[in-house]
Amino acid sequence: MEHIKEVINRKGLKMKFVAKALGMHPTYLSQIINGHRPPKDTDRVALAEFLGKSSQDIFFGKKCLLNKSSQNNQKRQNNHAGLQKKLPFPIPKEEKNAN
Questions:
Q1: Cα–Cα dist 39/18, whole Å
Q2: How far apart are CA 76 and CA 70, in angstroms?
Q3: Domain-embedded: residue 93
Q4: Looking at residue 35, which CATH number applies to its domain?
Q5: I need a labelling partner for 41 at 20 to 30 A (CA). Which of 11, 65, 69, 70 fits?
């Protein structure tokens, strides 16, 4: 299992080149690589095929981007819980509109 950035660097490619070759905006690819945005299924498959790897190798496992997104979400939840302990009032939960 390899991280996308490692594969791109080992192949001597630039992220901008990879993004353009796949019809993606470089910022979108960067967000995927850094775990800030989950890729669309079609983009995930296209990226894996372009890099000559399986989608499984790139997106699932220890260094996987999807796990990284989950870890980022867990950190946010932990930060929220820590903040709640410090405040003298409860943080209101988001309410769903009843429209």
A1: 15
A2: 10
A3: no
A4: 1.10.260.40
A5: 11
